[in-house]
Amino acid sequence: MATGPSGAATALQLAVWAANAKGSAKAAGVVHDGVYGTDRLKGSQTWVDEVGADVTFTFTDGPVLQSMRSSGQGDVGLARSLPEAFYTGSPVLTPSLRGRHWGEYTPADLAGRAGEPNRHGVVLLKEQVEASDPMFAVGALLTSADVHRVGTRTEQDRVLTGYRGTVSAAHVAKAVAAGGPGSGVLPWLKESGTRVGTFEVWLGPDHLPYQASIRGDFSDGAFLATFTWSDYGAPVRVTAPPASDTWTAADVARLRAKAAG
Fold first, then answer.
1. Largest CB tally within 10 Å, which of 106, 163, 235, 253?
2. pLDDT tens by residue, 146-163
3. Is 23:52 a contact under the CB 8 Å cutoff?
4. What is the mean pLDDT of the chain?
């Protein structure tokens, strides 16, 4: 029975192999951020042959919701994540999106090099999309020095086995430097300012992750997220929004230059 660190690591590695054999899943979750508020997310993730995510957020409280309502966007936000860019959007056309549904953010934009004014809020959404990938929590726990089995429970006629551990930026950096797991987790920890987080993953008898929770203290407030996954192996294809329906940081820069005269 996988109880100690070595047994838990074996179980988590089996989860990686099982999930990679499937390559995709549907994701759902609830995220509470102490500064930005609470939202529910639902979407699809793919991580082997193609890498991407298509997620819908429904905001239920907090400053993000207030900002969206004041700009005419309502309660719902959209996100698509691809290796070359991250896209945020609204199902309704609003002046804040210059008559288009989507905004495009390249890695340079999100690093702040392009002067994108919405960077911080977009990074927040990107962090949530990344955390809703089942490989995220599993990869994080594979770097934990105290990961251990916490028991079993039955959900929807499936017996799940739970594993929990603390994850720190220092441990993840060490694991990545040694060629181990955690490459996707390290940027997330650095961007969020999280020094130590508690991760918990529940695996099914087929070794697949079906539930996870993440608790941590971000640099700007407490963070709590719970995720569930289903429909492993279902076809998922994530594409960039049409260019005609997208504005970019370069568009914003041109408008600013024109306004400055």
1. 163
2. 999 999 999 888 999 999
3. no
4. 82
Q: What is the pLDDT of residues 79-98, one digit of tens each?
A: 999 999 999 888 776 555 56
The closest of 29, 242, 15, 201 to 130, measured between CA atoms, is 29
Run of H or E including 33: strand 24-33
Neighbours of 70 (CB within 10 A): 9
Q: Which of 30-39, 117-126, 183-192 has the highest mean pLDDT?
A: 30-39
Partnered with residue 30 across adjacent β-strands are 40, 226
Contacts of 242 (CB under 8 A, 6+ apart): none
Q: Of 168, 195, 227, 180, which is closest to residue 26 (Cα–Cα)?
A: 227
- Give me 132's structure tokens: 């809703």
Which parts of 23-132 fold into alpha helices (H)?
Answer: 63-70, 107-110, 119-131
- The answer to whether the beta carbons of residues 200 and 162 sit under 8 Å apart is yes
Query: Residue 176: which region, alpha, beta or left (left: phi > 0; alpha: psi -120 to 50)?
Result: alpha
Residue 139: partners with Cβ closer than 8 Å, 6 or more residues away: 16, 181, 182, 183, 184, 185
Round to whole Å and give the CA distance between 179 and 177. Answer: 5
**Strands 37-47 and 51-61, sheet pairing:** antiparallel
Buried b (16+ CB within 10 A) or exposed e, 204-243: beebbbbbbbbbbebeeeebebebbbeebeeebebeebee
The residues near 233 (Cβ < 8 Å, ≥ 6 apart) are 22, 23, 24, 25
For residue 25, the Cα-to-chain-centroid distance in whole angstroms is 14
> What DSSP character marks residue 177?
H
Q: How far is C-alpha 231 from the geometric centre of its chain's CA atoms?
A: 18
